[in-house]
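User: Hi! I'm a student and our assignment asks us to look at how structure tokens line up with a sequence. Could you show me two examples?

Assistant: Happy to help. In each example below, the sequence comes first and the structure tokens follow. Example one:
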Amino acid sequence: MLGLNGTPFQPATLQLTGIPGMQTGQAWAALVFCTLYLISIIGNLTILVLVIREPTLHQPMYYFLSMLSLNDLGVSFSTLPTVLATFCFNNRHVDFDACLAQMFFIHIFSFMESGILLAMSFDRFVAICDPLRYATVLTNNRILAMGLGILAKSFTTLFPFPFLVKRLPFCKGNILHHSYCLHPDLMKVACGDIHVNNIYGLFVVIFTYGIDSTFILLSYTLILRAVLAIASREQRFKALNTCMSHVCAVLAFYVPIIAVSMIHRFWKSAPLVVHVMMSNVYLFIPPMLNPIIYSVKTKEIRRGIRQVFCKSWG
């Protein structure tokens, strides 16, 4: 976009697109997104309420699970205003500064989720590899410190992003390809030198996703080695079963990220709708799946849900 003197400038508003090629199916898209939001919000709120109300769930594993649910609520509420405005009310314009704020919160919650999944893998590592010290290693103070550390790390690394975008002029229009604001999407309509943004963005991705996923893989390598050393087949199965919920949550989070990266790197000619849909999967599916995974795979969560319903209907 150009100013009166022909110089590029920052637009007052940015226009969100929704899903390209689905202009006639916006009502169905709105129904799908509303359903995803409803499942995600109800499911994660249920997990939080259960952990708070049930004394049997006052354990490190469930404290980390409550962090994950709280973070997933943050992801949902970060995207909800513009997604509902785009698909339900056909209001596609968002203030430039509001877009930067949304971008910051979407990315910070995504990076925090990676850190929480790493903390949960450490929890499973201690529980299986050093069970006698589990209660002394993962004290309430240490769990709180880990949570605050994840928040501080994510905030510190993401804090420069809005300012790096704010300094750029925009001369390639004001139309974004999603119904929410992401850093890569903003870079596509910015002009000027964006090398700093790209290099810092790559550094943050490697520093967060790369390191976290490496340590998660290392944790499960050590866990698998410890499990295989157990003589009893039944005990091996029981030990591995305690990790299945977390493994599913890790896959639900990292598989879409890897898929988005692979498409971006090796299938640049892919239709725009493919990129948009994969970004939607990356942001909307994990917050919806996580409470379902833990409700299905964790008997303590299932028992807590049954008790709540029994009390409600009793």
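Example two works the same way, sequence first and then tokens:
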Amino acid sequence: MIRVLLADDQMLVRESFAMLVASAPDMEVVGQAANGKEAVELARSARADVVVMDVRMPELDGIGATRLIAADEDLAGVKVLVLTTYDTDEHVVEALRAGASGFVVKDIRPAELLAAIRTVAAGEALLSPGPTSRLIARALALPDTPATGGPDALSDRERQVLTLVARGLNNTEIAESLGLSPLTAKTHVSRIMGKLTVRDRAQLVIIAYESGLVAPGR
């Protein structure tokens, strides 16, 4: 069972998502939070696998809550799926940098939200290529873009794999594109994450764009 925590300051939104998640045979709702502070506390006490996190919340917003969850070693296995009103919301980039595994818009179809939760729970990054490119392009224009580890230490093959990860391909698609086995592709991704000291594929996407390995909009 995938243990899901819902964090949104709108009760109607939380309740509707809770009913949806509870209807899935492989998921259960382990808590609901009305703000980021509650989300962090419940992530610790309820041992959630995935936190569906709204960006804009009182007391502590979704970005701050995501950052605290990502920085807590005891919550290393917790994945954050960010909820946003628009797919061009500049706060999404901040959330991804903070440690979120992906984002979805609030008007997502029910079946797509459940699929998104499953994807994030499985360790994949959920990033729509179009919106992600626009968001990263905007982030690169900011003067305070934080420095990140670059792909210089990677082998040529690993750089190829990182490029495909940044374009939104999963391990199976990467394997097909490079003529590898899915297991080999997965191993490459794991090694890249280790070399660049990141905990999530979403962070690999950020590094690929910020380093110039992948150009926004290409």
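Here is something you could point out in your write-up. Residues 97 and 206 are 7 Å apart (CA to CA).
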